[in-house]
Design a protein that fits this description.
Layout: H1 15-29, E1 34-37, H2 52-80, E2 83-88, H3 92-95, H4 101-121, E3 126-131, H5 139-142, H6 146-155, H7 164-172, E4 186-187
Parallel strand pairs: 1-2, 2-3, 3-4
Helix pairs in contact: 1-2, 2-4
């Protein structure tokens, strides 16, 4: 696969900054075919100890950031009458994790958001789906203590963490035109 890559740095929790960035992207590339919305943060803490700021930053980045990116991408895709949006959520949004009420709530919100948006955009040939991976080996998860990583591994039937490459392959499943019938689906 060849192609050109560019970096666009902006705060996805900032509505205006996101809109402006997507306008630049659409202008630079003459449109937008695919959005993989995959930004996320954690601020793990038991609910009774969680500060409002820890709740807010996770919801603003994970859920509001998904809204901001999806909205900005949808504006271009609706004009084109085509596009693919893939929102990355988490199995934590389906099952919950102790110490992650904020994270689980944000990721569960993305599931409902995806299902509703899929129904809004489908008439214009824009598909919206979600992927809910389990534990993926990333910078965010590598900072967890070894004991916690081992405890997670024991719950995974394959006894290994997912990789970025595997997640990319799952996302690419949604791209061909033949998949345009898949709307509001959650793959986990």
């Amino acid at each position: 696969m060849g192609g050109e890559g560019r970096v666009y740095q902006f705060d996805i929790a900032d509505f205006e900054a996101t809109s402006q960035a997507f306008d630049r992207i659409g202008s630079d590339f003459g449109g937008l075919d695919v959005l993989v919305s995959n930004a996320g943060v954690t601020r793990d803490q038991l609910l009774v100890r969680m500060k409002l700021a820890e709740w807010d930053i996770v919801l603003q980045t994970n859920l509001s950031g998904t809204f901001n990116c999806n909205r900005a991408a949808a504006r271009t895709m609706l004009r084109q009458r085509s596009g693919r949006i893939i929102n990355i959520t988490s199995v934590a949004g389906l099952t919950g994790n102790p110490g992650q009420t904020n994270y689980a709530a944000s990721k569960a919100g993305i599931v409902g958001f995806t299902k509703a948006l899929a129904k809004e955009l489908a008439p214009r040939n824009v598909t919206v789906n979600a992927v809910a991976p389990g534990f993926i080996d990333t910078d965010m998860t590598q900072v967890l203590p070894d004991a916690q990583r081992q405890a997670v591994l024991q719950q995974i039937p394959a006894a290994r963490f997912g990789t970025r490459k595997t997640l990319r392959r799952v996302c690419s499943f949604f791209l061909p035109r033949v998949r345009s019938i898949l709307l509001g689906r959650l793959f986990g």
